[in-house]
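task queued by scheduler; priority normal; single chain, no ligands, no partner chains; default sampling; output format set to C-alpha cells
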Amino acid sequence: MSRKIFSRRLDKIFKILGISFMVFSLLVLLVLLIDVFLDGKSRLTWGFLTSFPSRKPQQAGILSAWVGSVWIMITTAIFALPLGIGAGIYLEEYARKNRLTKFIEINIANLAGVPSIIYGLLGLGLFVRYLNLDRSVLAGGLTLALLVLPIIILSTQQALRAIPFSIREASYAVGATKWQTVRHQLLPAALGNIMTGVILAMSRAIGETAPLITIGALTYIAFLPQSPIIFLKNFPFVRFSLKGMFDPFTVLPIQIFNWVSRPQKGFFTNAAAGIIVLLCLTLIMNISAILLRHHYQGKIRW
C-alpha cells in the first residue's frame, strides 16, 4: 500500500470519527434537554415566574432569582465590556511589543483558565470586605466582571489581529490618526469577532455559582432589588436610582442548587423548570449578541 493511499484512508477514518463524536455529543445534549424539559414542564407557569421562593414546592417560584440574574448580567456587562475591549485595543494597537507586554498577555491568557472559585475569593476579600460593598448586586457584578475580563480581552486582541494590516496602512495614508483608524476602521471590522468573545464570556457568567456563593449571595430571598426606575406623581414623573445595586440578591444557578439539595421530590421539578428558564435567558442573550454581530458584519466591505 502506497503512502498516498494510506494517508487518504487515514483522512477518511478521521472524518468518520469526527462526525461520530459530533453526533454522539449532540445526541447526549438532546437527551439531557428532553429529560429536563419533561421533568420541569409542569411547573412552567406564569405563577412560577412571578412568585418568590417558598418552603412548599407547589408555591415556590423564581421571581427573585431571575430578576437577580438580570441585575447581575447588566452590572457585569457595564464593567466588563468597556474595560475588556479597551484593554484589548490598547495591548494590540498602542502598547509597545516588548517583554513587559508579552508578560502581561501571557498572564491574561492564564487568568482565563483560573477556576471561578478563585475569583470568588478575590471578590470576597476586595469588594465585600475591603470596599465594604457587602453581599450586594454590585459586589457580585464586579466579581463576575473580573471572571470574564480575560476572555473579552483575548477575543478583542484576536479580532484586531485578524484584520489585514493593509487596512491600517490605507487609513494612515489618507492622514487618519491612530484613534481615527481604530474608531472608524478597525473596531467596525472587528466587532463581529469581538461579539463572539462577549457571547462566550457572558454565557459563562450567567451560569456561574461558585463565585457568588463565595461572596455570600443569598440562597433564599423574598424581595427584589430596588428598581432603577421610580415613577413619581409629579414632574418629572420619573426618577432614576442606583440603590438596587447595593441590595442583597440571588440568581438562578444558586436557586437551582438550593432546590436540588432539598429532599422533597417537588423541588426537583422546580429545579428542572428553573434550568429551562436559565437556558432560555442564555439563549435570548446569545441570540441578541449574534444578531448584533451579523448586523455589523453586514456593513463591512473590504
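post-processing summary
- Residues 119 and 147 are 6 Å apart (CA to CA).
- Residues 1-43 form one domain.
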